[in-house]
Amino acid sequence: MHRDQVPTSAALVRALLTEQLPHLAALPVVPVSSWGTDHDVYRLGDQLAVRLPKIAWAREQGALEARWLPLLAPHLPLMLPRTEALGSPGCGYPFPWAVVGWLPGQQADPDRDATERTAADVAGFVTALRAIPPHLAPDPPVRGPGQRGGPLAALDDDVRAALAELGARVDVVVDSRGGTGGRRAVLRCWEAALEAPPHAGPPVWSHGDLVPGNVLVDPAAPGRPTAVIDWGSAALADPATDLRPAWHLFGGASARAAQQRFREGVGADDAAWARGRGVVLQQAVRALPYYWETNPAMVAQASRALAAAVAETA
């Protein structure tokens, strides 16, 4: 997926464990199939997993989660990853890595799990996260201009450049999913987000990437979330940043009802809702050209969310 991606393997995991955590080295190591963009994950025995960054921008995530999540977890209604050990570069591998507890559940499915119960549970999680005192965890970053969770206006050039790179492909993405107008409809949606009043209060805790791959649900009780993983984008930010589930998690015939239940649960006014659409749009149009040839599942996810957001302002 990335030009400078670092390859990993079960043999590498075994070598790192043997070198640094020998008490775990005899456990079975099994690759976990994933279309995630930052880490490769390996199941380690029945209760653990090893996460190895595959790109330099994710190298600090293991340490961040080990530092913050034990402080955030007691305040939240869903499980969070638990760090069991941190590893160092070694065996030719250049990044820090982590051993975490294996969390029960499976990736949320926007069609299967688009229920009002799911929406209520995810809204409860977002509301609880926002209510955590900003400085409960040490040194939280504050998202500023040009960053996810910062002012949208600073991302205008970024969005327009990504649309230019997408070219006619954006028309295919939008129109093939029941939308109309392609690029023009995307720009209307983006400009409506830019016109929305900015967040007037202090920034709040935000996960920053509440998409299907990061929300786990109970396979025995479809639609019941169990955990939220992958906290690499966590920060103090505009609360609209965590409205992404509205366009990512809810699909199919129940999408509208679930989306409305989520909106009511988080108390999003029209301005926040428009900014939330803008967050989804910006992330999608950036992801689409980058992953178009290398990560079809990511392209499908971004396409679906973009079309859902654009449909509201078409």
From TrEMBL:
GO MF, any single term: transferase activity
Pfam families assigned to the protein according to its UniProt record, in alphabetical order: APH (PF01636)
Keyword Transferase: yes
Ranges where the Aminoglycoside phosphotransferase domain occurs: 34-277
Keyword line: Transferase
InterPro entries noted in UniProt: AGP_Transferase (IPR051678), Aminoglycoside_PTrfase (IPR002575), Kinase-like_dom_sf (IPR011009)
Protein's UniProt name: Phosphotransferase
Lineage: Bacteria, Bacillati, Actinomycetota, Actinomycetes, Kineosporiales
